[in-house]
Design a protein that fits this description.
The structure is a homodimer. With about 400 residues, chain A is an alpha/beta fold. Helices cover about 40% and strands about 10% of the residues of chain A.
Chain lengths: ~400, ~400
């Protein structure tokens, strides 16, 4: 058995070696990165834990409560309610479940009508999955010159009497997948407050960036506020397994308070808890434990350093682009850099043949580079060389 | 930093120590168990992998293909299509997405009508989550004397002309959460074939039990067939992280063939693949790698041994129950034992105070014990003593 075990591990390793490695710096289009080294020491400890049945794992459950409290802290919420779940998709679907349920409650006998939700054109495709299942009606206002939702248009749209009673939710993005932009949640909050509309903020990426973004990286006249200090922000997606450096699976959904649990609860007769509010049932405690450890170990100071390094590298990439004659779409808001390209699909496939994995924007003809913590200046130098070679060919 | 790291790991350990341990034999109501020891050696190797972006992890992706093929093999399917996902809930929701989509296609302009799905009363609560999101209409036929769906009733119901065109799917259970029963999928398949109805089998638990169940444990005149060899069985939930002994998260969804992918695909513009069919996006490759290794290491023979041990222990529990004057609800079909109890809630809370975690049935007044691989005869002896003490008090 032991020989067989060794043989299997050897075989597995061969497969694993064919995967890309973050440290090689060729993964330029992923919002995930190499997990912090402490993770490896925690995974084994929590391998058996199952937060789907929390009564059996009270220690791990308490850790989750503390993690949610810590995340609440960075999101300006003293009474957060939430979970560490599989990722941003589950988090966004969970928020859409709540909006749909609240909208049903309001509509009374019109309850079979679809929920109307304002959604940026640049929203992550997890919202398409939510729509596919929940028959939501998305309304996407035009983007303004900063590639965020046009607030003026939206205000007029919502105030139009015909539409007034029909908007059930607004999704705002804080760290857009495509460009790293941040919707003007401050202005959206005012509109939402006036018209009693639920705001969900998708800060899957930005949640572990914006709170740690030093003044010197902040653009003038740009709104970076996105958290629970703004009225009618009732839920936020924030993923430790993106810029929080936790291993997958560690997504986060946080609500303003416990009162939102009732929209999610399903009877769970076989478990130690009588109700279950998470979408996924059985779930490992690894995400909770690693996030807890990382937030203790790094603290605000540690995350600030990581974000600063990524921002410096983003500016370095912009500088190199300029030297080589490449143009940006926007000045980076967070550590996502866009490179204008007439035929981004062709370029990205050429780059892939050379071993570089970038991805593309949808709303504009451009490549997008996520300058994650695993990317350093040398990788950027090499990448720019490769990109420029594509253009010469 | 290193001192701080050690301190954090020490603190984490303290929390973890407050969790129950499978090896203590007190967890009697969970369908998860202690993962096989080889898992620990694999977790670290695949910690960084992300099957949500498979182009970056081609080695891990290939492993997934092989795992699905192996699982297809035990389910009598030479052309399986599927994924290793977060668990049974995601798998069941995924199947409901497909049924809803197919039903929409058929209904044409009546497409806003709810999909009608036959669902056993004893179905897992993940189907409630699916209903909550997808507005499904569940029809639950009465249970027969074996606590499975009454096939005769169902046949009449479906053949009733008024209902004939209205049934979009049948969910059958192979290893019911509550009692371990198996629906008569053989007969259901005939009905489904005749009326062109999609069958989804929830074998989250039974999938790694029934194919390895030796003849001597099989009840007379009981139908154990549940897999793709039966017509109109189009999808099966089968969880490696239950009786497959993989660590969480390792659930499985398998379809008859690739043609079902189109009902799930959502455009995924930022990733190396253009479409994504899984409900959850970012997902670790750990579940794939551990399942691959376990299926190689244990093989059919190994799983047969594990199942036999659990069945022997189930019968041992039944014998002890008889000695102590406790009655079963049904003769165990799989390694789940039911104990009749007038007030199961009270008894289970008393047991919990004594450190024993059992759970309850819904469809009958009874406790339920899942005789997982971590349970041995000594645990059973001690448990029966404790239960009998509850009754004396």
């Amino acid at each position: 058995m032991e020989i067989k075990e060794k043989e299997i591990l050897r075989e597995l390793k061969k497969y694993r070696e064919r995967d890309l490695k973050y440290e090689d710096g060729k993964i330029l289009g992923s919002m995930c990165s190499k997990p912090h080294p402490i993770s490896k020491k925690i995974v084994e400890m929590f391998l058996e834990s199952n937060l789907g049945d929390p009564g059996l794992f009270p220690g791990t459950k308490e850790l989750e409560g503390e993690v949610i409290k810590s995340i609440g802290n960075i999101l300006n919420n003293k009474n957060p309610f939430g979970y560490i779940i599989s990722g941003g998709t589950e988090a966004n679907i969970t928020a859409m479940r709540v909006i749909k349920k609240i909208s049903r409650g309001k509509k009374g006998k019109d309850k079979d009508k679809k929920a109307n939700i304002i959604l940026p054109e640049t929203a992550h495709f997890s919202f398409e999955k939510a729509k596919d299942m929940m028959d939501l009606n998305y309304i996407s206002p035009p983007l303004d010159k900063n590639y965020i939702m046009d607030v003026k248009y939206l205000k007029d749209y919502i105030e139009d009497k015909r539409e007034k009673h029909g908007i059930d939710g607004i999704v705002a993005i804080a760290g857009c997948t495509e460009l790293g932009t941040i919707d003007n949640v401050l202005e959206l909050s005012k509109i939402a407050k006036e018209h009693n509309i639920y705001i969900h903020v998708d800060a899957a990426f930005g949640g572990f960036v914006i709170p740690f973004l030093e003044e010197r990286y902040r653009l003038e006249n740009y709104n970076y506020e996105f958290d629970f200090s703004l009225e009618n922000v009732f839920s936020i997606t924030i993923d430790p397994h993106k810029m929080g450096l936790a291993p997958i699976p560690a997504g986060g959904i946080v609500f303003k308070d416990y009162s939102f649990k009732k929209y999610l609860d399903v009877e769970a007769p076989y478990l130690t808890d009588t109700y279950q509010a998470t979408l996924i049932g059985t779930r490992t405690g690894i995400g909770v434990a690693t996030t807890w450890a990382l937030m203790k170990l790094l603290g605000s100071e540690g995350y600030r350093e990581i974000v600063s390094k990524c921002m410096d590298n983003s500016y370095y990439l912009i500088k190199k682009m300029k030297e080589y004659g490449f143009e940006k779409v926007i000045t980076p808001v967070l550590n996502i850099v866009t490179i204008k390209d007439e035929d981004p699909l062709r370029t990205s496939l050429m780059l892939r043949d050379m071993g570089w994995y970038v991805s593309m924007c949808r709303c504009v003809d451009a490549l997008r580079i996520i300058v994650m913590p695993h990317i350093n200046k040398e990788h950027i130098d090499n990448f720019i060389e490769a990109l420029s070679q594509c253009k010469r060919d």
